[in-house]
Amino acid sequence: MPIVVEDGTGKADAEAYVSVANCTAYCAARGLAFTGSTAHQEQAIVRATQWIDARYRGRWQGYRRHGRDQALDWPRLEVIDDNAREAIDGDELPVEIVDATCEAAVRELAVPNSLSPDLRRGGAVKRYKAGSVEVEYSAGASPETVYRKIDDILAPLMARTVSGLTSKAVRA
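Predicted structure:
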């Protein structure tokens, strides 16, 4: 059964921010591998969508268009594109959300659940040695992988943080 893709209306049953066809086109244009069965591609997109919402929830500008009645974090109201300095319509699914979901889906298709792996003992490795190779993380190093490409794509949609306080752009 095909996945339900958000179209900007704030669907109560949406599972994904992008269709398999659109994600495949995005990947083809960038030389990224997004091949396999349609079922596996759909599963990767659904996991990527869940990860995008979970990872960035609380950092988005604005608020959900239909509150808890919509399944996903987008569409949202009172969001300003930080790059263009213009409001994003409340019925728009920003291209940044779609692109970031495609980038995340590529990773999920290649290695399922790689975006949110379980971390043993919090992932705080002090020393790991295998033969002549040794890895030691400094104190305070994050155990989580940083997905810079996805972070960079989504940056214009994030609330700004100033001195630990989150500020939201409001259109006058």
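Summary: The first helix runs from residue 20 to 30.
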